[in-house]
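Structure ticket #2291
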Amino acid sequence: MGESTHLWPYDIEKDIALFPYLSSINIACGFHAGDPFTMHELVAAATEAEIAIGAHVSFMDRENFGRTNINQSPEQVYDLVVYQIGALQAFLKLYDATLHHVKPHGALYNMAAADPALASTICRAVKNTDNNMILYGLAGSELVKQAHAAKLITYSEVFADRTYRDDGSLTPRSEANALIDDEAVCVRQVLQMVKDDMVTTTSGKKIPLDAETVCIHSDGPHALSFAQRIHQALKKQGIEITAV
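Resolution: structure written out below.
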């Protein structure tokens, strides 16, 4: 959330409209998107609504919305992550609130899913900033493995609105079938992941995965309807949505 690509104003109401159906949010911290005004307003709204808040950290790449792979040294990646966490923590301090989790964005997320060294650097930055924070990472990824090795609290993340390849990675956005636009397909995939711990890939193969947190992209055209339908479907199955 809060992924403004220009300075104020930002239509924060479209983000807040999702609150009744969520347990946690990821707020952009200014590097791929976001700005101080949006960060502050979302923190204020989320703390009032008792929604858990996470830092959505990325490469410094507003021009490409953080979706371009960038090769940086471990020291640089470490500093990028710590800086963005600190920026969001400052606003949370104003409300006597604590940061619940960290979730990398875009290229940083996908690169860390496959690169043990990059994943380890992100884990080190999170752990050294606040060892009590949760790290969200792609289910089955190197980021989750390295987080476990670092003894970080970790949630394996799955996606409601993205398709999967046979190796468990997300289908690249450059491919036509990367995004899910159909509500029924979206709900069916979430229920399969949450109830059965598996997902059907674009080739039709069923692969195992852990589902501890489900992501919906708030900037997607169907974000609100997806959130409503998923919330309704999970509730119907007796599954509670909560941020531990």
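Closing remark: The CA atoms of residues 181 and 222 lie 7 Å apart.
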